[in-house]
Amino acid sequence: MKNRKSYLFDCDHILPIEKLRVTIPRRAVLSFAKEQIQAKKMRQIGIPTYLIDNLTDLETNEFMQIKPVVCKGVKIQIIEQIVCGTPCSGNEPIRLFPIQSLTLNIFNQFNGQQTIAEIVSIIQEETGWSLDKSAAVVRNLFLRLCEVRICEPG
């Protein structure tokens, strides 16, 4: 596993995400193209869809209505007290965050049932953080997990 001493996300060190850098492996290009066609068809019949690359461009109200979910085929496992995720098109686990962190509580809310706004409210109540800090932490975790193809908008 790469970066044995570090991990993807830490609630205590939040850096704003301005633009996502999503990479698609060569072997996933065909499935990505199929997903893009499916999304276009859904938009044409009025079903809201989101492009991962454009999530940072959404208005706050629209972003808060997204229901985060773990991508199909992603494997989540614990390795050396770190929660790791392997994207469906990946071979090696990505070290996401320590198991003994608040990040796990937030990640567990990414079940496709709750909006980001609802998750922010839950985290604010659990931690006593301000609304701004709670929203920033949830937003950044979701965006970072989208960037590495662990989560997506539901």
TrEMBL record:
This is Coenzyme PQQ synthesis protein D. It comes from Flexilinea flocculi.
